[in-house]
Amino acid sequence: MSTSPQASEHTETVTESSSTNKRILLAKPRGYCAGVDRAVDTVERVLDKYGPPVYVRKEIVHNQHVVHNLRERGVVFVEDTEEVPEGSLLVFSAHGVSPAVREAAERRNLRTIDATCPLVTKVHKEVNRFARKDYDILLIGHEGHEEVEGTSGESPERVQLVDKPEDVDQVEVRDPSKVVWLSQTTLSVDETMERVEQLQERFPDMQAPPSDDICYATSNRQVAVKAMAAECDLVLVVGSQNSSNSKRLVEVALQSGASSAHLIDYASDVDDSWLEGVETVGVTSGASVPDVLVFQVLDYLQERGWGDVEEVTTANEKVSFALPRELRKDLDENPNNPQGVR
Ligand code: SF4
User: Where is the active site (predicted)?
Assistant: First the structure.
């Protein structure tokens, strides 16, 4: 698979001078992607316009700080549509949902707004297209991840999940000439290609996705961390434990030469023993992380003597997505008293 990160290949640096060797490399791009920005904006607008309580199925994005703040403002996060009172307003998270979840919401007469990232929806459509052509679909992804559950749910009888290397041997297809691989959007690009090569040994005629399933934001953040990792004694990735793309950044940093790497939600999670003997600290963040949390980490490091901050830029992202259609429509038609979706 050729990935298509929005990369300008040069690396640019912004430096503040300091007399010590302690420096910080700050990855760019990092943090919020267009899909997360849209999903959080959706919930905030729904809160502003309709008032609490607003129900959201699963965490709107995988970040503790974001979820905590929204909960404080009146969002009720639920695991299942059954927990939502009949007739209430329910937002589907950025990770997407299966048709079965949509049907369950309809049965409860819930009014729904779909904040699924358009790049996840694209993979759902690919599943449907290949299922209609009666292909066996090998979905590379992490078992139990919400996105994978939603994507598989588009055609459970045709999709087989391939997570670990040993899963490749378990795959069974009906016709080896009608097989396609697709993937979760937030995987490690390199590990995914390893899994594809394994699958190709078993199914040489296997088709590739029509376009990259690993999204631009995931690819770009991995390229940026790779560009700086070899220079880093320590890489701090700001992100939550259930954030797939954030966890991949830790792995990519280590595979690309960082001496150590840790995933942290907050600056206060830094263990001072990690900093012993360290000169260069790399800092980046997952696609669901607001930059304020990154700046708190920079402050924490600067209080401990890391003065220089060099921004390592490998791409300038300009992607943005419009709000969900059903929300836009109501805001357009009822700007002063939106009510259509309720
Ligand atoms: S990480 Fe990629 S797929 Fe996920 S919300 Fe962001 S842009 Fe969309």
Answer: 147
Count CA atoms within 13 Å of residue 161 on its CB side: 18
> Does the annotation place 117 within a ligand binding site?
yes
Task: Compute the distance between CA of residue 241 and CA of residue 253 in angstroms, rounded to an integer.
Answer: 16
Catalytic residue among 126, 147, 149, 311: 147
Is residue 145 a known part of a binding site?
yes
For residue 297, which of 334, 270, 316 has the smallest C-alpha distance? 270
Nearest CA to ligand 1 atom 5: 35
Per-residue pLDDT tens over the stretch 21-57:
999 999 999 999 999 999 999 999 999 999 999 999 9
The secondary structure element, H or E, covering residue 329 is helix 325-333
3 within a domain of the structure (yes/no): no
Determine the structural domain holding residue 258 and report its residue range: 23-33+215-313
Global pTM reads 0.92
pLDDT confidence bin for 87, thresholds 50/70/90 = very high
Asked whether residue 110 is assigned to any structural domain, the reply reads: yes
Write the Ramachandran bin of 109: left for phi over 0, alpha for psi from -120 to 50, otherwise beta: left
AA letter at 40: V
For the CA of 245, the closest atom of ligand 1 is 1
Q: Does the beta carbon of 245 sit less than 6 angstroms from any atom of ligand 1? A: yes
pLDDT for res 323:
97
**Residues 275, 186 within the same domain:** no
Q: Where are the alpha helices (DSSP H) in 26-182?
A: 34-50, 64-72, 99-107, 118-132, 146-152, 167-170
Q: Is 226 helix (H, G, I), strand (E, B) or coil?
A: helix
| CB distance 327 to ligand 1 below 6 Å | no
Q: What percent of the chain has pLDDT over 90?
A: 89
C-alpha 211 chain-centroid distance: 18
Residue 242 lies in a domain: yes
Nearest to 139, CA basis, from 79, 131, 242, 241: 131
